[in-house]
Amino acid sequence: MTRKRALQVVSNSEPEVDKKLKIKIDDLATFDAITETQGQFFSQYKTKGAFLLHGSAGTGKTFIALYKALEEVLDRGTQYQKVIVVRSAVPSREIGHLPGDEKDKTEVYSIPYQTMCEELLPRKQQPYQRLTEQKHLYFMCTSFVRGITLDDSIIIVDECQNMNDMELNSIMTRVGENTKIIFCGDFRQTDLYRRNDMSGLKKFMMIAENMPSFSLHEFTTEDIVRSGLCREYVEARMRYEDEFGVA
Predict the structure, then answer these.
(1) Are 51 and 214 in contact (CB under 8 A)?
(2) Alpha-carbon distance 106 to 98, whole Å?
(3) Does 8 fall in a domain?
């Protein structure tokens, strides 16, 4: 019996995407590495199957991960068919009950990736929507990863500092054949504060260090590319926390 693949098209009756709207590899803008750490990730991307991009905010971790992932998925010569962005639905502030179905509840968490797609594919209107229509891009929360197998995919596990040990374990055990996985996060930015629901990232980093398939890249304040003010603030905050021992 052939194993049923995850994220398979349920119905063949879905309307086809207009060919004029379809996104192709030529529509993807070209980006070079800005910092040495970004360059290390770029140079190892083809040779490794798993990555952990860890470190300071504003260093472009998720952006470069999505860029390289789309570059491969849009290339018909590769084995990868889709990019799957996985994120934990953990709010940075209490925002109360979100109405609607699964799509409605997770829509707010997909906004950063919509913005990134607009920068990566500047010549296309609503590129995030076009990519999802073409089945090249999926967004899902960790609540829905149990029981599925992710084949022929590039998985981006974003904001992984907001995942507990069991969430990270669930994601790693979903990885199927011909699949690459990229974790992005910084344990200093966790939004998990409950005593029984702490970030599992530190433990996961120690496990990944003992896996030959993993390539670990540590991004420091020297790698911050968002803005000079962002870098200045992060450096000042780290000095404060080092001096007073308060997070």
Answers:
(1) yes
(2) 9
(3) no
Token digits of residue 212: 């030959």
The CATH number given to whatever domain includes residue 89 is 3.40.50.300
Picking from 151, 146, 128, the residue whose alpha carbon sits closest to that of residue 66 is: 128
Q: Does residue 159 come out as left (phi exceeding 0), alpha (psi in the -120 to 50 range) or beta?
A: left
Look at residue 15 and tell me whether its pLDDT is greater than 60: no
Task: Determine the Cα–Cα distance for residues 36 and 51; give it in Å rounded to an integer.
Answer: 16
| Continuous segment of H or E residues that includes residue 191 | none
The answer to the question of residue 81 being in a domain is yes
Q: What is the pLDDT of residues 76-91, one digit of tens each?
A: 999 999 999 999 876 5
Let me know: does 152 contact 136? Beta carbons within 8 Å. no
Handedness of CA 125, 65, 203, 58 (dihedral sign): negative
Residue 187 belongs to domain spanning: 36-93+100-244
How far apart, in whole angstroms, are the C-alpha atoms of residue 113 and residue 121? 12
**Is 132 contained in some domain?**
yes
Place of tokens 């991307």: 45
**How many domains does the structure of the chain reveal?**
1
